[in-house]
Design brief:
It contains 13 helices and no strands. It has 336 residues and is mainly α. The chain is globular.
Length: 336
Amino acid sequence: MPCCPLCLAVVHPNRDKNRDSRFPLDPLKSHRPKTASRSPAKAKGQRRTREALPAPPVPPPSDLIREWQVCPVFATHRKGFCTSCEQRQRTYRLLVDWLQDDKFLGARISALPMHLQAFALNDPPSVPAKMVPLLPKRYQSAARSQEFLQLLVLAWCIRQAEHERFAAMPKASRVLRELSDYGADTTTLLDLTYLPEEILEIVPAMRGIAAEERQRQRLDVLSYRKNIAQGREAELQEEIPPEADQEARWASQFGIDKQTDESSRQVVWTLLFVPLTLYLRRFIVGRKLDSWRNSKPIVSDKIFKTASSLVHLRYPCLWSDRWTLVKKRSYPFLQS
């Protein structure tokens, strides 16, 4: 899987003071001192095993609901950010909203690893009464609130299975370990780099099919509506596809705002990269100041290169490691 090296200039309390700061650490390469002795796991004749990501317990309902909510005023700025949510990932909410209309939830549960199937099949605890008003209106009854909570648990299990798959990759495991050595939390990195890839593949295809159907049925629909307006009996042989505006509103809730085959143009990447780059800024630093007039540290390009390479490593078919696009999307938020 092709991937550009991730170059990090990291400030670490135990960093070697004799190291030349002009040569930043590279998380794709190990900088630990080499020793002559072999560890038991690397002894000659023994096969090295991959490090498995430990499966954490399912978070309590209140935590799942807050993660889905993103922020109290999320509905007013789906494509934007506010100070209370600019560092919070949104892809979990995208997955939950996507699953609400899924008719094959049983097949999704069957596809999970066995240890996660148990979580998805168990009855979750009740939704706290004070959090029921935060749920979508159609799920605010007692019975349906439990149904929505089951969706939250299933979405968490699906994401956790993807985390485990990615963390088991040798290169990904090495990169995550190197980043964690300098203070980054592995679970946070996995959450911030997660994207429900089926949304980015299926929604544009569905929009393209619907556009073709609208064009093909245009004359039949016009004739049908004309007859209805004149009080005549009329019947359509095929189901009318949704209007373009209605379809666009539906797709935009998943961050698919453009009808194009070039997936990198979709706003969903902004929703992914802004929180990720804001988090990486804590561990990747550039020069302190560019001049005496500037009171803020310079935003290092290594932040955008690292974010782009991490996402490319996880989704090589969806993101082509173009760090300049990451900078274009994220830089205004890192300046504030």
